[in-house]
Design a protein that fits this description.
Blueprint (H helix, E strand, L loop, with lengths): L1 H17 L18 H10 L8 H4 L19 H12 L11 H6 L3 H12 L10 H7 L7 H10 L23 H4 L18 H13 L9 H6 L4 H12 L21
Helix pairs in contact: 2-6, 4-6, 8-12, 10-12
């Protein structure tokens, strides 16, 4: 019970910091940004001052780039996007991928960051995940097995209480199912947990490894660090292989619970 209360409290804190009155639509599950979408679009496409256009690394459609290791940001939740930009600006999260996000975030005003997050959260794209054959051919990051990843995402890893150590030599319970926080097929659970389904494969792998070694540590209550420390390299590759191409539709259901999430944007 205390664990549940802690999660709810963390969500409330995040909402209080990142989303003042008026930032949300009536659908509390999908908070929408209250920034200036037109300004956000201009910054995304053209940049501002010394800050380059976001699309130069994240692609014209905001779907990211596996060769560069950049994530899909189009369609991600407003609260999560804004938190990451604010964390980069405050050096609470360090960009060890392209080494530019901290400077870029600082080069934008607080309102600019809110505007960019508002624009991206409202941008719907038809992106079904990374081309794993192309990733494998590039040879920079091993590609896992999606069917094994699905078991990890939906059910978690086996309990490690039989003396069998995980990749870092610790023992004890295995990793919880990813969907217990991020929802079915990694669809996300706003405002706290981001969409990780249909995210770029290379980005997912890199971030899970950064959570595991502590080089990324801006997660609420250290949850992702604790989970990632229970994952082997194979676990990470497999989970990422499933998540990048995960379908958010269940058998016999042609709609998702949040088909109207983009509203009239």
């Amino acid at each position: 019970m205390r664990h549940v209360i802690a999660i709810v409290s963390a969500a409330a804190v995040m909402l209080g910091v990142l989303a003042p009155t008026g930032a949300f639509a009536s659908d509390a599950f999908y908070p929408k940004g209250d920034g200036n979408k037109a300004n956000g679009e201009t910054i995304f496409k053209e940049g501002k001052g010394e800050v380059p256009a976001c699309q130069s690394c994240h692609g014209e459609d905001g779907s990211g780039n596996d060769d560069m290791g950049t994530p899909r940001i189009a369609g991600q939740f407003f609260t999560f996007l804004l938190k990451q930009l604010e964390d980069f600006a405050a050096d609470k999260r360090m960009d060890t991928t392209m080494f530019v996000m901290n400077a870029n975030a600082k080069g934008l005003s607080q309102q600019d960051r809110r505007d960019v997050a508002t624009y991206l959260a409202a941008r719907k794209i038809d992106f079904k995940g990374s081309d794993l054959k192309a990733v494998e051919a590039a040879g920079q990051v091993p590609v896992g097995l999606d069917y094994k990843g699905r078991a990890l995402v939906e059910y978690g890893s086996p309990t490690r209480n039989d003396g069998f150590p995980n990749s870092l030599g610790s023992k004890g319970p295995g990793a919880p199912a990813c969907k217990s926080c991020h929802g079915y097929a990694g669809g996300g659970a706003p405002p706290l947990y981001p969409m990780i389904g249909n995210q770029r494969y290379v980005y997912l792998v890199n971030q899970l490894k950064k959570w595991r070694d502590g080089s990324r540590a801006n997660d609420p209550m250290g949850q992702m660090q604790a989970v990632a420390r229970k994952l082997s390299d194979d676990d990470i590759h497999n989970a990422a292989a499933y998540l990048t191409g995960a379908s958010d539709l269940t058998s016999g259901n042609p709609r998702t619970p949040y088909d109207n999430r983009f509203g009239d944007h």
